[in-house]
Predict the 3D structure of the following.
Amino acid sequence: MADRRYTKTHEWITVDGKIATVGITDFAQSQLGDVVFLELPSTGRKLAAREAFGVVESVKAASDLYSPVPGRITEVNEKLSTKPELINSDPYGDGWILKLELAGDLPADLLDEGQYKTVTEASAQ
Amino acid sequence: MTEPLSFELSRPAVDPPRLPDADVSGPAPSDLLPKEALRAKPPGLPRLSEPEIMRHYSRLASMNYSISENFYPLGSCTMKYNPVVNETAASLPGFAGLHPYQDEDTVQGALELMWRLERALCAIVGVERVTLQPAAGAHGEWTALRMIRAYQHSKGEARTEVLVPDSAHGTNPASAALSGFQVVEVKSGHDGRISLADLESKLSPRTSALMLTNPNTLGLFEREILDIAELVHSTGAMLYYDGANLNAFMGICRPGDMGFDAVHMNLHKTFTTPHGGGGPGAGPVGVKAELVPFLPMPTVERTNGHLMLDHKRPQSIGRVRSFYGNFGMLVRAYTYILAMGGDGLSQASQDAVLSANYLRKLVEDDLEMPHDGPCMHEFVASANRLSHENGVRALDIAKALLDRDFYAPTVYFPLVVPEAIMVEPTETESKATLEAFARAIKDIVAQAKTNPQGLHDEPKNLPVGRLDDVAAARRINTYLQGQSEEPVLRWKAPSQSPG
């Protein structure tokens, strides 16, 4: 998808009007392995760009999740609490993590697909 | 085959267990405890005859795996053979029968052993004094960081950050975080060694200490250690040595001479005290002169041949362990050091390095070696290519080794190597054992190319097969979140059959 943007910390974001959807990338889920648990925030919470909002835990590792953009959480993917495997099976679809109402502009440091690919290739070595 | 619990083997027809009569007189429990705290009926202990209970435990023991039976190449853990003479010394009645509240005058021998062990460890790692109290390596890390912090506070400095390399043992950042420091990661360079440029960029007046192990967790000697020490000290920070890898160079070089200010040692790794199964461990910490006033108390002091415990240490960080540490382990380690002697210890380290390099050479065509050799006392291989090409991961290789009567190496550590397999053979293994292990690796890698599914199904020869760790972790989480009533595992009493 052309309008999907990425972070160096392996989150993705898509924007529809004022609402941004956030998840973790396919590369992130493949590196983590089977996801077993997510610690997620409540709706209404305000996040700054790059603020940690939760934790994703696999059998291999636990990683912090960071918000790519500033905003207020409007929705959290409740399905993930009983089906964390959605992160593995459909990271860009049913495995979305939260929706935010954007506050301000998109940060300039978001990556496009080509730039993100460079990041993943560097860390795969 | 699994073994039932002793509760499941219990037979009502057998008399309840009889405990020996108390050999001390004193008030009855009913005189001391309120009525609601007293049992109305005897506890429901399993009812088995002595031969039955003996066989139950013997069967369980036969399922165990230990260094006394076979090779245990668990990287970073130094699973060397634990000599029996250590046990003989530790079970001498004059040591084993001591009570920690005995008067100092009646335990001069035990205090002398502690005093002498401290001197021996000081000589081995090159420090001024050693505390024997910490009960494990991570406990030693924490103790050292408390001392470093107390020292810096005494100079009016409030440093808040601890630097830890990206290849470090997980205990390093954990100890730093537990001690209230911010953890800052230092990157490794392409050769697997710490990047001096990255270190320099992360050092600041906020830096309290750099925690380092040498050789590092990739089994590589940090050749630039003297430059690293100079850089760290130039900012007023201290250098901490994680002693997990001390087995690589006993009697050859010393952390103190490399510029480390505080050093922990794992007696259960380097000095042959039991390891695993609860040990217990022992993680003494050695320090340079500046840190001596901050050592945990009491210290053991000797004046005119009389030994005493010194509690008058105003700058001490206090006690870090009840009584005097895991004393039985101190006896074992001292026995080992005396039995080996200085030459013996340096020979042990040279043999440990030789074993690792020989084994590395034997398997270098089967597994990838992400960093150039030679290595020190351990090496890190990778199953990354096998995992991509044949779907056989480091975990599968580890499980397949269990089926071939070996313990598995450490896998997925250090984190900087994908599909890591970390092998530390130690000096106590014969050439024949190393070759047998290499043959097992070759056999598994050959099978990975012809029948990968067979490897996914291993282990098949053990009492328990491959566990579904994903399902277990997911289910325990649903339980913890209150979305399921039952945890994954809960023992239920078998329904009583008549008779």
Remarks:
- The domain at 5-124 of chain A is CATH 2.40.50.100 (OB fold (Dihydrolipoamide Acetyltransferase, E2P)).
- The CA atoms of residues 87 and 114 of chain A lie 22 Å apart.
- Chain A touches chain B at residues 34, 36-37, 57, 59-60, 81-82, 84-85 (CB under 8 Å).
